[in-house]
Amino acid sequence: MDEDQEQAGPADTTHARELTEQLRTAIEDVRTAVLVLARRVRAAHRARVWTVLGHRSWPAYAFAEFGIGRSTAYRLLDLAAVAEAIETTVQHELGVSHAWDTTDLVLPVRAIADLKGRTAELTDLIAERLTEAHQDAGSAAIPAETVGGIVAAAVAEVRARPDVPAVELETGPAPDGTTAEAWRRHVHAGRDAITQQRAAQLGIGTLALELAPAHLSDRQAEDAGLTRLANDIGITTDEILACRRYAITSDVRAMNGW
After folding, report:
1. Rounded to an integer, what distance in angstroms lies between the CA atom of residue 48 and that of residue 248?
2. In the list 85, 133, 134, 151, which could disulfide-bond 100, CB 3.0-4.6 Å?
3. Hey, where are the domains in the chain?
4. CB 90 within 8 A of CB 126
């Protein structure tokens, strides 16, 4: 009988412990795989591997090489962005990286829909909790499992937060007359607007890269014609350079100040 085949009856204590350890190992393997996936997606996108291999775009590359559809290809980028934001926050607050790898958190692709557009909210909460933990620890280092627990709890809390004020859910319309449905429409419209803005910025950045490839410095990119292109589409040189950095890194923080 295959060792993974389910037994007909209940397991004894020894077999139950054996199965539990196998499950623990499988969960660790999944956790590690997700983190490795996020980092490798990020590295591949930054390197613009699709251009080197002759594909017209990231989605086309993902489909041709891995059989992954367009929406999943972009969700993988979202996964990588969330993972990087968490990693950067931990490193900024504690001066170490990868300490959150020990967390019970797994960032499945299906969870990214809940976190998309809320990355700043998530990292602000993680930073706040890490600061508190650092103050409590004094000069002692914060254990890796504590960092992981903070990250996992923050992700769960942000995912669980409603789109509408809690008072409205229990007592009816808010004092200004805003209803739950109106509030949801307002929040979703705001998120849609941000999504559309980011898509436009990424499109401009991709266009800029066609004129000034990623290996050129900002100054060289300006000399390659980006200033003229910026004037043609009605934005500043600084803005088109920011879009180009966004397209190169996939890091939305490149657009700060837009």
Report:
1. 8
2. 151
3. 24-160, 166-255
4. yes
